[in-house]
Task: structure prediction
Amino acid sequence: MITTTITSSLRDALEDLGVTPQPTVINLEQPANKGHGDWSSNIAMVTAKNAGWAPRELATEITKKINSALPEGIESVTVAGPGFINFTLSPLWLHNVLLRVLEQGITQFGQTDLGQGKKVNIEFVSANPTGPLHAGHARGACYGDSIANILQAVGFDVEREFYVNDRGLQMNLFADSLLARKAGDQVPENGYGGAYVEEWAQKMPDGLSQEEALSWGCEHAKEDQRKTLEMIGIVFDMWFSESSLVDSDAIDHTIRALEEKEATYEKDGAKWLKSTDYGDDKDRVLVKSDGEYTYLTPDAAYHRDKFSRSDWLINIWGADHHGYIARMKAAMEALGHDPEQLTVTITQLVKLVRGGHEVRLSKRHGEVIELREIVEEIGPDATRFMYLLQSVDTKQTFDLDLAASKVMENPVFYVQMAHARLRSIQAKAETLEMWPLPVDNANLSLLTHQRELDLLRDLYNFADVVQLSARELAPHKIAIWLRELATSVHGFYHDCYVIGDGVSQELTNARLQLVEAARTGLVSGLNLLGVSAPNSM
RNA sequence: GCCCUCGUAGCUCAGGGGAUAGAGCAUUGGCCUCCGGAGCCAUGUGCGCAGGUUCGAAUCCUGCCGAGGGCGCCA
Result:
């Protein structure tokens, strides 16, 4: 790694100069400003004070030392600003980046073994089986699937899981609503009044009992949700049924396990969890005075089950569930699990805008935008890319008109267009029988144009971006990187003709390799987001 | 009242303690005999407020202001 070369050269220089105390770590960063080189170290500023040096003076001495025997791959070392030491890499080194990208190809580019096969279970969407998925489920769906892709790319063994709340009060209300509609009656108080209920009721067979209607409704809803998710390329490994926890007595076992840990008590005819002992701000009821479980109890049993199958649990919940995190972690800790191995990511709300106005959602009046509608309106690629372009920590404003438009301000088209252009160059080269071409036949040292080097620098960063987005569970970093790479591709396309226009055959050959490397980057990044890379637009 | 997330350009958003805070769109002006002009280049404006930590803060800490969400024996 070039960064190791740089840090060890800094370390050697510091030792040669007899600087004490020596710094424990040497950090490098990639300056935002290209004029500051490829890598920069602040080590002189960090070390100077304790070692009794002036920062700039120390930086100058270090630079002299390194310049006296410049390591391979480094073109220059300079001092700048208050004492930064800036390293510029040689084009030769960047050409090795190209070789590595081509060697790894789309299937391996950016992949690492950070996860070392650790089993991670990602639970997301988990919508109630009482109706179609709506716009509110979309962000968590795209996000969850993308971090699943990313964690797979960095070496985790990933399971995608959907928890189905197929029992309890809401399900009973749903079944009653279907039956009422079937009989031509009004839905009961607090029932489900959406238009789809009417529609589904007509499809439901006659003469079902409440239990049968519940089961039919649940299956119908699950199937509807599964199909919608498939439209945007999301396929779950596991649909976990809440009622199966009743059948297997897992809920009672969980309560007993909590009792054995003396984490429960009885009060006012109910059974409580001493969650305050584990960091929650209130104790929580497990079994109500009427003998029913609260929502927490089956969910605790469910998480206990997941811990028996996985090393690390990730839950993706909507903003309205954040208050639930502390009690779930408390329940897991009480059961003897490490709450650190349960990560809950909260996705903030999305405001939909269409025609310049906010689209108001009112579940009560059955006015919801179904996820299916969004996908049909703007397509699966735009749906995923737009939701993933922004950090889920922030409220998002989602402009449906923009996402649907096939114009340049639509970022998904901008990125996909970059890919289509590269493919069209390759297609032309294929017609002329110039491509494919083994990379050994190309003279990469001809790639010296600023646009070409920009592309190589972007490609070099990909593995780091993937790792960072995995660590922070932040797929938007991939989306941002893709947009930057696309910018470099368009610039290259504009300024560096690959075929014709007086370009020598030798340069054409070298540039064709770069085209394939850039294409590899675009496809690899888009794959992590679950967005396609079309050959033409 | 308490808890969570957020507040960056006219708009939508990036910004892993560093240098002159970045993209895209919008504005204005350039660039098409040429691999797809669905593009490229140039162009002004900004870190909610006040303290603190640090050689250095948009970033970390505290308080305040503002936005959204949550504080049930609902799910």
